[in-house]
Amino acid sequence: GADMRTEISTAAAFVTRLLRAAGGVGEEQLRCFRECLQEAMREHYKHHWFPLVPSKGSGYRCIRINHKMDPLIGKAAGMIGLSHERLFQLLPSELTLWVDPFEVSYRIGEDGSICVLYESPQPGGKAAKQLESRTSCKEEWRIGRSSPSKSYNMMTVSS
Questions:
Q1: Which positions are tagged coiled coil (predicted)?
Q2: Going from the N-terminus, what domains does the chain have, and what CATH number goes with each?
Q3: Over 50: is that where the pLDDT of 130 sits?
């Protein structure tokens, strides 16, 4: 079956880092949060992971905080006794995390730039184009959307 461990652990570690940076959550709680989040994501993505068509299901796998708490993050936080109210204090109020085969990226703020957390070449693809600086954020998303539009909650990327 498709292995999504790296993508999921990258995404879960990222959210955990945000919580740690905010302070006030113990290491043991953070460790538990990360494991719970990974488990919730694995369960949620199980039938929605298409390595041959990485963008398929992207909206379904997208983790989002936008004045509503993402249910997967909320569920993991509940396991360590963090309320949604507390999460809103600790995490950015606008966060979008895309967990796709071969790439995990995020955006903080509705019109922030998109940063790539993890990227790997697709097996069987052409030699992966090496981007000069992997550490910098993508200024625009692949499809070149320059102005953020409000109707951006459905992320369907057509080929």
A1: none
A2: 4-119 (3.90.640.90)
A3: no
